[in-house]
Amino acid sequence: MTPLQKSILNAVKRRPMTLRELQNNLQVDNSRLRTTVSAMVATGELSMRNGTYVPGFATYENASAPNTIPCTLVKLAARFGFASRDDGEGDIFIPGRALHGAMPNDKINVKLFDHPRVEGSSEGEVVEVTVPNNRFAGTVCLSEDGRMAVEPDGCRDVKFLLAKQGSEGVHLGDKVGFLITHRGNRHSDHRAAVVEKFGSSDYASECAKAILYGRNVRQEFPPEVLEEARAYDNATIDPAEAAKRLDLRGIPIFTIDSAETKDIDDAISLQKLEDGYELGVHIADVSHYVRPGSALNEEAFERATSIYYADKVIPMLPTQLSNGICSLNEGEDRLAFSCLMRLDENGEIRSYKFVKSVICSRVKGVYKEINALLEPAEDADLTDLKTKYEAVLDQLPTMDELYRKRLVLRKARGGMEIESNEAKLVMDENGRCIDIVKRDRGTSECMIEEFMLLANQCAANAGRTNKVPFVYRVHEAPDAEKMEKLSATLLACGLNAKFKNPIPTQLELAALLDETRGQPIQIPVHTGILRSMQKARYAPQPLGHYGLVLADYAHFTSPIRRYPDLAIHRILTEMLEGASQSQLQRDFNEFAQQASEKSSKQEVAAVRIERDVEDLYKAEYMHNHLGEVYTGTVAGITPRGVFVELDNTVEGFVPAAQLCKGEPQVIDGVSMLDPLTGKSWMLGSSMKIQVAAADVALGRIDFEYMVE
After folding, report:
1. How far apart (Å, rounded) are the C-alpha atoms in residues 325 and 306?
2. 216: exposed, middle or buried (C-beta count within 10 Å: 0-12, 13-18, 19+)?
């Protein structure tokens, strides 16, 4: 702020002043004063009120609020930003010039305005950047005056000039990693230097690398972790350790996964009894190899989860463990942590026990092949498959029988089956997306999910009933306000969505899901119900799982790729070894809290990365289909336009200006009406579109409406 700006601001803080009064008060050149005042009005430092100038929205102070509020900047655009309060009390809107150059993931202090422009909203000004974030990924572009610049990912129309040193060989449209080397009081004053060059933003694989860089994903393992992992090169199990365990190698245990899976952490066995079933869920005993205090454990805790995208994985553990000694590979002896369950003839759990075991998987089952055996196509030749699965073939009908009984129980309690429309990206040898296929779930996928759910339920029950520190997977009841909005939306769609209470029962929601399954309205209804829910997370308290309608739930079955599973393996191991409750409290109270918080945070980050990268590949695929015509389903409606989803799960945007000749009217968030033509479009209705544009760098696809 210049000395003249400070003088003007100090003057109007004492009392409102006209331009003439300011000139008389400050004794400054009239044209210079007019120019400065106009600029201050534009930046929000001054406002005009009843012919006088007063302090603007960027300078109001709120005496009733704390001096400053610690926040993190979470979104930045050219003319505004949003800061998330560190105390969890929501977001604060920050007008452009009140940002003072703050960047996403900066730790900042924010001062609230006394008079926000929107009544009841939180609006404020960045008064200090306490911990700057200077590492970003972006796309090389030109500044307004034609100089080389970079636009940070997720910060549309924000550009920083690039330093010449380090920018050699960088071309327009390249994806790069860069550091902010100089910060000014405005974004236009920032300067940047390229530190990583990924390649052209026309390719999703290069854009994906940039996303990982910009979000500080740990891709390489530190030397000390790799050194510990090398001890497990081509490792086999320790015979002395195996001798201490329950030997289950004589039981026909096998795995079922997708064909490309290399980190196999769960196997199953099933025996039909006179009065029910004995189900074994056998999980890789990762906790035997990843010990507290080790570099492997510290790295796994920091990562908390593996990240899967396209045809790649960023593993939580090095491959010597994830694909080697911890993977339940066919024909290889492995140390396992087994949950052995007795179920009655209806499929209800009667009893369970956890044991340390040694197993040997008889066959690497593949979902597609198991589905072919369970539901054979007419005239299908299954000779080769029956030979492959000979050792476990007699278990398959029993597994299917138990699964069907469990499905009846799940439906009776109101367990929700939300269709998520997952996509499978098909890649060529160069890593380009050449096809997108909707991922279908057959009987075997659902069957394995149900058996894993049973083991997870037993693990949580063991933690809760023994009153030991634990890491639970919790899903709390939805917020009443969100449910009210959901109900109004569903009613506007013509569905019977009048709930008896503010929070609907799971049976009520499950009925709506089933009613719309396979219908045109399925996509928006299932998505709407999902978005109105709380997010599942990890917690040291047994808060239950609303969506699954279970009092007990935890994650026990995937310790190769999820740290919470590894954490509770460690706790259950000490329980089996006879540790007292007080000892377990001392050993794991703080650990369970830290593991829950870290794992929840990292899971959210991983899911965002996976979704954002998937959008890049979808845009890459659709870029090769520009001009082609498809029929899709209206999946979302906004005043700006509508979102249309194709059968292959690709979603694109149709601007309202293409649909409406008049001012579009959005009715109840479920339909758009053109008042001039009388045409309307509703959630679930079909729409013929043409692919107009596909921006790989932004992961954005635009459709053009085709009049039918």
Report:
1. 17
2. exposed
* CA pair distance 334, 164, nearest whole angstrom: 56
DSSP string, 241-265: HHHTSEE-TTS--BEEE-TT-----
Decide if 46 contacts 55 (C-beta within 8 A).
Answer: yes
The residues facing 123 across adjacent strands are 93
Amino acid 62: pLDDT = 46
15's enclosing H/E stretch is: none
Name which of 47, 66, 63, 67 is nearest 55 in CA terms: 47
**Residue 217, C-beta contacts closer than 8 angstroms, at least 6 positions apart:** 307, 314, 609
Tokens of 338: 């087994």
DSSP string, 459-489: HHHHHHHTT----EEEBPPPPHHHHHHHHHH
Cα–Cα nearest to 141, from 185, 192, 183: 192
N- to C-terminal Cα distance for the chain?
57
- Continuous H helices in 218-312: 223-230, 239-243, 295-303
With beta carbons less than 8 A apart as the criterion, state whether 392 and 485 touch: no
What is the mean pLDDT of the segment spanning 58-83?
77
The amino acid at residue 72 is T
How many other C-beta atoms lie within 10 A of the C-beta of residue 373? 20
Answer whether 198's CB lies under 8 Å from 176's CB. yes
Burial of 602 (0-12, 13-18, 19+ CB in 10 A): buried
Q: Which of 464, 461, 463, 453 is nearest to 266 (CA)?
A: 453
For residue 212, give the DSSP letter. H
Yes or no: say if 153 and 138 are a contact pair by the CB < 8 Å rule: yes
Measured distance CA(246)–CA(282) in Å, rounded: 12
How does pLDDT run across 408-423, given as a tens digit for each residue? 999 999 988 887 778 8
Helix pair angle (395-413, 367-374), 10° resolution = 90
Per the DSSP assignment, residues forming a β-bridge with 436 are 425
Q: Is 176 within 8 Å of 138 (Cβ atoms)?
A: yes
Nearest to 556 by CA among 241, 366, 336: 336
The two tokens of residue 420 are: 């998520």
- The residues near 414 (Cβ < 8 Å, ≥ 6 apart) are 505, 506, 507, 508, 509, 510, 549
| pLDDT for residue 165 is more than 80 | no
The burial of 315, by beta-carbon neighbours within 10 Å (0-12 exposed, 13-18 middle, 19 or more buried), is given as buried
Q: Across-strand partners of 340?
A: 280, 353
- Residue 50 vs residue 351, higher pLDDT: 351
Q: Is residue 600 a contact partner of residue 538, using CB atoms and an 8 Å limit?
A: yes
Identify which of 315-319, 481-485, 635-639 has the greatest average pLDDT.
315-319
Q: How far is residue 316's CA from residue 615's CA, in Å, rounded to a whole number?
A: 23
* pTM, 2 dp: 0.86
Beta bridge partner(s), residue 64 = none
Please check whether residue 33 is in contact with residue 23, taking contact to mean a CB–CB distance below 8 angstroms.
Answer: yes
The mean pLDDT value of the chain amounts to: 91
In this prediction, residue 119 has a pLDDT band, given cuts at 50, 70 and 90, of confident
**64: amino acid identity, one letter:** S
Structure tokens at 244: 């201490």
Crossing angle between the packed helical segments 204-214 and 581-623, to the nearest 10 degrees: 150
Q: What are the tens digits of pLDDT across the range 204-222?
A: 999 999 999 999 998 999 9
Two tokens at 296? 């492997």
Q: Which two tokens stand for residue 655?
A: 């601007």
Among 306-310, 499-503, 653-657, 675-679, whose mean pLDDT is lowest?
499-503
Q: How many residues does the chain have?
A: 708
Q: Does the CA dihedral 466-469-471-476 come out positive or negative?
A: positive
